[in-house]
Amino acid sequence: PRPPVRRPCRVMILVNPLSGRGQALQLFTGHLQGMLTEAAIPYTLVITEHQNHARELVKKADLSQWDALVIMSGDGLLFEVINGLMERDDWQEAIQTPLGILPGGSGNALAASVHHYSQSPPAWNEELLLSCGFMLCKGLVGSLDLVSIHLASKQRIFSFLSLAWGFVADVDIESEKYRHVGAIRFLMGTLVRLATLRVYQGRLAYLPLIPNSSPTHKPHPPPDSLLPGLDQPVPESWTVVKTEDFVLVLAIYQSHLAEDLWAVPGAAADDGIIHLFYVTGGISRPALLRLFLAMEKGAHLACGCPHLVYEKVRALRLEPISRQGVITVDGETVEYGPVQAQIHPGLARLIYG
Ligand SMILES: Nc1ncnc2c1ncn2[C@@H]1O[C@H](COP(=O)(O)OP(=O)(O)OP(=O)(O)O)[C@@H](O)[C@H]1O
Asked: Ranges for the DAGKc domain (predicted)?
């Protein structure tokens, strides 16, 4: 059963003043303050002062004081909040705190996704912010899948958006220097990266989703029962991808990778699926550019590109062989090396329309 729908009233709003173009606070006061006052939603504004501020805060907070934790930033701050909640001794209860997202970054993948789930026509910038503000005022709460990710150092982190290696991870990190231009930074980064397109060697394996099996929603999931140790071979039920030459690997569990990158047309916040994309070596630069341009309209799978593969999976393992590279989780760089992941359907709760 789904958790009951409840309208949050006491809300902690965490704003990263440096996110995106550095205007998150002005956007909040200009567009949202009035809306929240009119909707009679009491809130406390917390302006984050440094990296991991939000993580430490929610780790120690008395959560009985709050009906919802809302993030106004990019996706990086929500990643911190989710991991702060999961690091608590009472994580099973803490992660049930409804979470909200207001776009303040330059990527805003989750904000674009929740707007999309509300079946509204596409929106950008202030229009997207107003849509997310409206959803916050309505306060409908639904389930959100989380993905548990294991790194080589045995660290375990929780992700709500994506795990990326190769082209997508490189563009995400390299384009951070263009953050002041907003969402167009990804297009700029894509063009720059295309000029130095490279192939990454690695091994990829995954546990396919069994067709027609509906994911089981367990509010208190067991440990990662689908994952063997990273030093053990993958089980026989897994599919081992034959090629070791990749241009990119992208595991994503929401519809949007950024405001104008509609990566998974059929995704839902709680579909219990890791949508795994990979592009194999040998793709030409124009073909790769065509895929990213088509992604604006969610049409990349219809391009008929033989190098693009899409699988719905429950767990995966990626073992880079190339010595250097970038792996990102929810757009943040993590340790480079072998990594594996498993979905936990509906583990968290999210405010969306
Ligand atoms: N006051 C602050 N000063 C420096 N870093 C901060 C501050 N507040 C938060 N952070 C950190 O900034 C990082 C980036 O935040 P986030 O991804 O939310 O925004 P963004 O990078 O602007 O968004 P986008 O990736 O969409 O451009 C997070 O890891 C967060 O910990």
From this structure: 6-153
Q: Which residues line ligand 1 (CB under 6 A)?
A: 16-20, 48-53, 73-77, 80, 105-108, 179, 331
- How much is the ipTM here? 0.96
Q: Tell me the pLDDT tens digit for each residue of 237-247.
A: 999 999 999 99
**Angle between the N-to-C axes of helices 75-86 and 53-60, in degrees from 0 to 180, rounded to the nearest 10:** 30
From 21, 51, 82, the mutation candidate for ligand 1 (largest count of ligand atoms within 8 A of CB) is 51
* 317 membership: H or E segment, kind and range: strand 308-320
| pTM of the model as a whole | 0.94
Question: Which stretch of DSSP H or E encloses residue 171?
Answer: helix 167-174
Residue ranges and CATH numbers for the domains of the chain are 11-144 (3.40.50.10330), 149-346 (2.60.200.40)
Residue nearest to atom 29 of ligand 1 (CA): 76
CA gap 254, 95 in Å, rounded: 18
Nearest protein Cα to ligand 1, atom 13: 76
